[in-house]
Recover the amino acids of this structure.
């Protein structure tokens, strides 16, 4: 595929053609067409925030492409001695990293690292893939979600997707709003008043304060975890009250289209944002398919920036 960017920092700079190209490349990976020629390149995963599925699927994706995959152990590193993010990145690039997969709590951290390694001299250059930067973007998660929807419905064009919960602090919501609308889907966002997006939202996204109105007739319901760790002020709502007012249960799901799928990027807080039984129900839940498709989608992303 012809991927015209050096890095993958967000959905914002991607065109429809870029997105479709990445999704087609992911399908090629599923079909077993793994590109040769990347073997031996070096991938360093630098995760400054916790992760299970993103970290593991990036590592597996790199290994399936034949890359050397190293984990930069943040806790054991010189970050604790006060080394800056930019100097850390320059160090990893100078050691020979061809791609740094970055997760960080600060919005813009991936961009900062991309700028820093852009100035590394003497090598072919190091690409940066954003695996989540604070409340900003999580582009590979949005690509996975789009890939799962495209597998199910054939296209994203004309679909209606409800994204529910903590929209304000969710990089998954942000990247999904950008991607889905760019690909011709309609997006409704809903959640507690204080967790709705405070600023501008992309064209094609509507804020529907009532959860049941938001879910009504949609093709997909995407539930999100409340990002307590990103809140300046605590949310004054017990887990039970949250579930009663804003959680997905079967009665509410029945308002969606009959063919609707239930999505969640994980980690799930059972019986808070979603009833545990619904999350487990293979008749509607595609949550584990989202996990599994993380590998081919991330293979496509790594191959794109290394290609
Ligand atoms: C999300 C994240 O880290 O933004 N998880 C993921 O990567 N699948 C969502 C979350 O933490 O709630």
């Amino acid at each position: 595929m012809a991927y015209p960017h050096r890095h993958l920092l967000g959905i914002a700079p991607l065109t429809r053609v870029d997105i479709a190209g990445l999704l087609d490349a992911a399908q090629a990976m599923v079909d077993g067409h793994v590109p040769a020629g990347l073997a031996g390149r070096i991938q360093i995963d630098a995760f400054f925030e916790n992760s299970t599925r993103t970290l593991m699927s990036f590592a597996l994706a790199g290994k399936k492409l034949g890359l050397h995959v190293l984990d930069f152990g943040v806790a054991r590193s010189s970050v604790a001695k006060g080394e800056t993010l930019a100097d850390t990145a320059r160090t990893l690039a100078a050691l020979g990293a061809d791609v740094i997969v970055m997760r960080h709590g600060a919005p813009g951290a991936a961009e900062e690292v991309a700028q820093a390694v852009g100035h590394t001299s003497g090598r072919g250059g190091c690409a940066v893939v954003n695996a989540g930067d604070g409340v900003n973007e999580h582009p590979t998660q949005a690509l996975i979600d789009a890939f799962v929807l495209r597998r199910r419905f054939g296209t994203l064009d004309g679909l209606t997707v409800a994204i529910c919960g903590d929209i304000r602090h969710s990089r998954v919501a942000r990247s999904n709003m950008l991607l889905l609308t760019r690909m011709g889907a309609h997006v409704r966002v809903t959640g507690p008043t204080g967790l709705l997006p405070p600023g501008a939202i992309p064209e094609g996204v509507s804020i529907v304060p009532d959860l049941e109105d938001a879910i009504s007739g949609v093709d997909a319901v995407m539930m999100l975890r409340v990002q307590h760790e990103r809140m300046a002020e605590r949310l004054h709502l017990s887990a039970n009250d949250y579930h009663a007012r804003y959680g997905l249960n079967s009665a509410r799901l029945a308002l969606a289209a009959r063919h609707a799928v239930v999505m969640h990027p994980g980690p799930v807080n059972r019986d808070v944002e979603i009833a545990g039984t619904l999350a487990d129900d293979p008749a509607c839940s595609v949550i584990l398919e989202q996990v599994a498709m993380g590998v081919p989608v991330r293979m496509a992303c790594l191959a794109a920036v290394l290609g």
